[in-house]
Design goal:
16 helices; alpha/beta; 6-stranded mixed sheet; 431 residues; 12 strands; 4-stranded mixed sheet; Rossmann fold
Length: 431
């Protein structure tokens, strides 16, 4: 009996031991690393979370802009060790082909589940139980289906089926998958795709770009950590995608932030195409609509740990943002304090003055203290903090949530343990 099997045996006796659940997952990923190195490298980077309410044993799910593996511990304990391994490989392949992002807003999630399962199961020694395979689909349709196609090709095929053929898929019975999204029996389902679905409010282009950046980062790191001798096991199209990243896949933080501006109401402005609500009979009086360009306050790190080149780079990017987007920017230098007397206010694409102010230690708390003392409205203001990340570990944000941290290095360099808002990288590449 291998180590994973022993851990599963212990979990059957005590399925509420969450620490043991995580040990099972860790040991299973180790076995994936030994058989499919790149899939194991992918799984190592995805957070894991126990979810007692999930309708299947495993599933990839979005939590804000980060994918995580959700685990139902009780049914997990009933699997054999080889079933756990193949189920994890199945999930890693979904992530490899970016399925949770590509189909996040699909109007036909049930058909997406069949199409994506068919695509990934062809690269596994055996398919997880109750997931669709190419062989099952061919038997039900009584015809040949091309192998090793992209999930989008299989989805197109499923959408073109007759009503009678679709009905066959809905009534396949216990030996295959049901495409009825109302199925909730965890004992009949090893994995779920329900966590892929995002609401309309979550599908803003800026958020989708952040999700793409997260997935690209995971895949790039997995590819880098995989020895060349193990890369040959991947399909050629996947190798091409990972080995020669497209130059068009650029992470544009200015675009991400500008999308955010269109979601923040910042007072109201007069417009002639709306009736005046107070006096609607007076046609000459303008009405009002929400103004969606908030007050933008940018704080640029001038502490001693920031080099002159880094400071010049940050100010250059701000200058381009102001000129390209014609946004009203207020720029404040800071180190251990906010140097408000050196504020620069840019209107209609004005130019940034390049100069260093201060040069002492770094304090992020001084920024939020300044905003609070100046009575800046947290709901109608966007805060941008450009820094190398070195500072304190905890802050009082005074209910400011529209905050973007732009780091000159890796996003993990930020010293604040639980930062409000989003943490982005000033680099151009998304991987």
């Amino acid at each position: 009996m291998n180590q994973l099997a022993k851990l599963l045996e212990q979990l059957r006796r005590n399925p509420q031991d969450y620490a043991l659940v995580y040990q099972v997952m860790t040991q299973a990923i180790i076995q994936v690393l030994q058989s499919q190195r790149i899939l194991g490298e992918i799984l190592l980077q995805v957070p894991r979370k126990i979810d007692q309410e999930q309708d299947a044993i495993l599933g990839l799910s979005w939590r804000e802009n980060q994918l995580e593996i959700r685990i139902a511990p009780t049914p997990l304990a009933e699997l054999r060790s080889d079933e756990v391994v193949v189920l994890l490989e199945h999930e890693a392949l979904h992530l490899l082909w970016q399925h949770p992002l590509r189909y996040a807003d699909s109007p036909t999630p049930a058909l997406v589940q069949i199409a994506t399962d068919i695509a990934v199961n062809q690269y596994l020694p055996e398919a997880p139980r109750k997931t669709m395979t190419l062989e099952k689909l061919e038997r039900q349709l009584q015809r040949r289906v091309p192998p090793y196609q992209d999930s989008s090709d299989y989805l197109h095929l499923l959408l073109s089926l007759s009503d009678q053929e679709k009905q066959k898929l809905r009534t396949t019975g216990r030996n295959s998958i049901s495409i009825d999204p109302a199925v909730k029996d965890a004992n009949l389902r090893q994995e779920t795709h329900q966590g892929w679905q995002l609401g309309k409010s979550q599908l803003l282009p800026g958020n989708q770009q952040l999700r793409l950046a997260q997935i690209k980062k995971i895949l790039h790191q997995a590819w880098t950590n995989t020895p060349k001798k193990d890369r040959g096991l991947l399909p050629g199209d996947v190798v091409a995608m990972l080995d020669t990243p497209s130059q068009k896949d650029q992470f544009n933080w200015q675009q991400v932030i500008s999308y955010q501006f269109g979601t923040i109401a910042a007072g109201r402005e007069e417009v002639v195409y709306r009736f005046n609500r107070r006096q609607p009979w007076r046609m000459e009086l303008p009405g009002t609509v929400s103004r969606l360009v908030p007050r933008i306050l940018t704080f640029v790190d001038n502490s001693g740990s920031v080099t002159d080149d880094e400071l010049e780079g940050m100010l250059s990017q701000l200058s381009r943002l102001a000129s390209n987007k014609h946004l009203p920017l207020e720029i404040y230098p800071f180190d251990a304090q906010v140097h408000s007397e050196q504020r620069q206010k840019l209107i209609n694409g004005g130019r940034v003055t390049f100069r260093r102010v201060g040069g002492g230690g770094t304090s992020f708390q001084c920024i939020f203290d300044f905003l609070h003392n100046q009575r800046v409205n947290p709901t109608s203001s966007q805060v941008i903090i450009m820094t190398d990340g070195w500072g304190e570990e905890s802050i009082n944000s005074y209910n400011f949530h529209h905050v973007d941290w732009l780091l000159t290095g890796a996003v993990t360099d930020l010293s604040v343990k639980h930062p409000v808002g989003r943490v982005l990288n000033l680099g151009k590449r998304i991987i």
